[in-house]
C-alpha cells in the first residue's frame, strides 16, 4: 500500500517533501534509537504484547519497485475435537504493550528494508548502528476505523512492529518467502504462496520480547504521522544466502532499462534517520 507512488515517481528521499508535505513533519520516522536515553516504564514490562497471529493458507508477495511486501490472507479453519469445534483465528491481531487498552490492531502487510551490504539496510538504527535488514509488520486499528486507508494518519490508527536482523543460521519461517523471490524478481511481479505461513514465526520467544516504543510516521510516502512504533530488542537471525536472495530483486519491470545511474538492484531502500524533535523513546526493560 505504502511507497508505491514514490517508486513510480522515482523521487529521492531528500525531495519527498516536495510531493508529500507530511514528509517534512516534526514526528517523522525512522529515528536513531539511543538506548541509554530510553525511558523505562514498568507498566510496559507488566503489559506483554499479545501477538494473536493466524496461519495463512494463502500469502501474496509483491515486488512494488521499492521493496518486497507480503500480504498474509488468513482463512477460517475448523478442527474437530471430539464433539467440540475449535476455530483458529481468521485474522492476525496485536494488542497489549503500549497500545491503548481495549484496542485491537489487525496485521495488514509485512515490509522489508535492506542494504546492498550487511553494514546497512535497516531504517531505524540503535546507538548509530544499522542492521542488514529491518522487517516491519504493519497493523491498523479495527476498533476505530473501517479500513487501513481510513486509519492512516489518524489517532491510534497504525502500529508497526519492527524486527532487526543479524547474520547467522537460516531462518526457517523466512525461507518460504526467500524461496519464492526469484518469481517476483522484477517490479510488478506478484505470487501467491499456498504453503501455510504464520507471521508469528518472526517473533522472538515470549521471554525475549523486550521492546522500545515511540510515536512517529510511515517511512515511505505519504509519510503520514500518528504511527506507533514498537521495535523489538532482540534481532531475527537470517543467513547470508537469504540476504542475497533479497538483493537479487529489481526495481524495474522485466524488459525495461533501470533509471539512469541506477543498476536496477533493489537495495538500500531505507529512509535515513529523522530528528527526534523533542520526542522520547520508552522501553519495556531497564538498560
TrEMBL record:
Q: Boundaries of each Alpha-carbonic anhydrase domain copy?
A: 1-285
Task: Enumerate composition-biased segments (Polar residues).
Answer: 78-95
Q: Which residue intervals make up region (Disordered)?
A: 78-98, 251-273
**UniProt xrefs under InterPro entries:** CA_dom (IPR001148), CA_dom_sf (IPR036398), Carbonic_anhydrase_a-class (IPR023561)
Under the heading SUPFAM superfamilies, the entry gives:
Carbonic anhydrase (SSF51069)
Matching entries from Pfam families are given as: Carb_anhydrase
Provide the GO MF annotations for this entry. Answer: carbonate dehydratase activity; zinc ion binding
Leader sequence range is: none
- Basic and acidic residues: which segments have biased composition? 251-262
Extract the Gene3D superfamilies matched here: Alpha carbonic anhydrase
The family annotation for this protein states: Belongs to the alpha-carbonic anhydrase family.
Q: What is this protein called?
A: Alpha-carbonic anhydrase domain-containing protein
Amino acid at each position: 500500500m505504502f511507497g508505491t507512488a514514490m517508486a513510480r515517481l522515482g523521487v529521492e528521499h531528500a525531495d519527498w517533501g516536495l510531493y508529500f508535505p507530511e514528509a517534512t513533519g516534526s514526528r517523522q520516522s525512522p529515528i536513531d534509537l539511543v538506548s541509554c536515553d530510553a525511558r523505562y516504564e514498568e507498566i510496559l514490562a507488566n503489559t506483554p504484547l499479545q501477538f494473536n497471529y493466524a496461519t495463512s493458507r494463502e500469502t501474496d508477495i509483491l515486488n512494488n519497485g521499492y521493496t518486497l511486501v507480503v500480504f498474509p490472507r488468513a482463512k477460517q479453519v475448523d478442527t474437530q475435537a471430539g464433539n467440540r469445534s475449535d476455530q483458529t483465528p481468521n485474522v492476525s491481531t496485536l494488542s497489549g504493550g503500549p497500545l491503548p487498552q481495549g484496542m485491537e490492531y489487525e496485521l495488514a502487510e509485512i515490509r522489508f528494508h535492506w542494504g546492498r551490504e550487511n553494514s546497512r539496510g535497516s531504517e531505524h538504527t540503535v546507538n548509530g548502528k544499522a542492521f542488514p535488514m529491518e522487517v516491519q509488520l504493519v497493523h491498523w486499528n479495527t476498533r476505530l476505523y473501517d479500513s487501513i486507508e481510513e486509519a492512516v494518519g489518524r489517532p491510534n490508527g497504525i502500529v508497526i512492529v519492527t524486527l532487526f536482523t543479524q547474520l547467522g543460521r537460516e531462518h526457517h519461517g523466512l525461507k518460504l518467502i526467500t524461496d519464492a523471490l526469484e518469481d517476483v524478481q522484477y517490479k510488478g511481479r506478484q505470487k501467491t504462496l499456498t504453503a501455510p505461513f504464520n507471521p508469528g514465526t518472526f517473533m522472538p520467544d515470549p521471554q525475549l520480547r523486550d521492546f522500545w516504543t515511540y510515536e512517529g510516521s510511515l517511512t515511505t510516502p505519504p509519510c503520514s504521522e500518528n504511527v506507533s512504533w514498537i521495535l523489538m530488542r532482540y534481532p531475527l537471525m537470517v543467513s547470508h544466502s537469504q540476504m542475497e536472495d533479497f538483493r537479487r530483486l529489481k526495481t524495474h519491470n522485466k524488459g525495461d532499462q533501470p533509471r539512469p545511474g541506477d543498476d536496477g538492484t533493489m537495495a538500500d531502500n531505507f529512509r535515513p534517520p529523522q530528528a527526534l524533535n523533542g520526542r522520547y523513546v520508552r522501553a519495556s526493560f531497564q538498560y
